[in-house]
Every structure is written in C-alpha cells, then in structure tokens.
Amino acid sequence: MKNRFFIVVILINVLLMSCIPHKDRLYLQNKQQATDSEQVVVEQQKPYRVQINDILNIRIKVTDQENVQIFNPIGEGNLNATAGERAYFDGFTVDLHGDIRIPELGKLHVLGYTTDVIEKKIKDKLLAEQFKETANIFVTVKLTGLRFTTLGEIGSKGMKTLYQDRVNIFEAIASSGDIPDTGNKKDVLIIRQYPQGQKIHHVDLTDVNVMHSPYYYIQPNDMIYVKPLKQKAWGTGTTAIQNITTAASILSLLTTSILLFNRI
C-alpha cells in the first residue's frame, strides 16, 4: 500500500511540473515594473537596404506618359495571375552581382542601397540619357511585398508575403496563425540575411522591451523559428487540469493492472 502511495505522489509531482507556467504564455509583459503604466517607445525602423534576390517594383512617370511605356510593366492586364506572380514577372530581380536590368537604361547596381537612393539613381540616369528636366520625371521604387518564412512551433509554417512597407514581429506571427502554448515565446530566433552572410538573432516576445529591439520589425527574407518547449516532447498537458486528467487516467490504469496482477 505504501508503494502505491509513493508511486502516486511521484507521478502527480512529475505531471504538475510538466505544465506550462502562465507567464510563459503571455506576450509583452512588463518585467521591470510592478505596473504596466510606463509607455514603451518603439524602436525606430532603419531604412531597408536592397539584397540579392529582392524583387523591385519600379514605376516611371513623365509629362508624356507614352514615352515611358517601355519602362513600365504591363502585367496588370493578366487577371489570372496572382499578385506574387505579377510581381515576379513584372518586377526587377536583383541578380547575384547586385544589379537590375532596366529597358533602355541597361544594368543598374542597387545592392545595399535604399529605395530612395535607387529612385534618385534611376531619375539621374533618365535625365542624362533619355529626357530633359521639362519632362517632369517621377520615379517610385518599392519592394514587391515583404516576404518571410516561419518555421517550428507556429500555427502556419512556410513562406509568407505581406504587401506592406513594414511589418513587426507580432504582425508576422499573427499572419502565421500565432504561437501555440507549446512554443517558446521567450527565445524566438530571427535568421536574417546580410551582405556577408546570415546571422541569428534572439528575441523575447514575453518582454515588453522587445519593442526596443532592432529586430522588432522584420525584413524581407527573414526566417522566424519558434522552438518547441520541452513540455511538448513529454507529451503531457499544458495546464494543471490537463495534467491531473492525464494523471487520473494513468493511475486508473496502474490500479487496474495491480489488482489483476494480485489476482493471478
């Protein structure tokens, strides 16, 4: 009888320890203050610099618009194409050398430049080779959506594209189905591309100070990896009630097995 009681105590303790603490499930906790009345200033996003394989959407407008038809894509007429497909075929992809090729203007090096700088480079090249100041040239350069990839313990895995100028980490996660209770919100990895290679950055989404982080806003081609908590590998419940239910089932099975064994 004592052995049975001992087994029950150990089993309940193990199952209760395996539940996920409430504080590990909450986003944006104020861990430095007793209250959450303090305002948090969001980290200012730095201008994005174009990378290899980025796709740029370039539009050129002048007084006589017929003179720039060769520069502007015409794929909008294909109603069967998705936004992503139109962006791929109509946009200007940055090649392995960091260049794009524009009709009549030829190659233009854009690697490492912001879209504002690229707009100026295109306008200057047009004025030098194609038009005069009186043409009133207006150039816009945008990324064709913000593309990122989600992996690990998250609702929806895979590549996503959001057609916004900027996206923060919470918007990216929300668009991917959120992080379940079994995902580690305290140590989310952001794998980011740089000219010299990839780097891994760690962010704690349970801390309100994540909004101060330089990685609060994601960048094109980021990979977001959410590690599973050890509780998932144990296969128990995520709350104490779920664990007690599991414990009751196991205890019932053990009791039945012991009674049957004693009758043999």
From TrEMBL:
<dbReference type="Pfam" id="PF02563">
    <property type="entry name" value="Poly_export"/>
</dbReference>
<feature type="domain" description="Polysaccharide export protein N-terminal">
    <location>
        <begin position="43"/>
        <end position="141"/>
    </location>
</feature>
<protein>
    <submittedName>
        <fullName>Polysaccharide biosynthesis/export family protein</fullName>
    </submittedName>
</protein>
<dbReference type="InterPro" id="IPR003715">
    <property type="entry name" value="Poly_export_N"/>
</dbReference>
<keyword id="KW-0732">Signal</keyword>
<dbReference type="InterPro" id="IPR049712">
    <property type="entry name" value="Poly_export"/>
</dbReference>
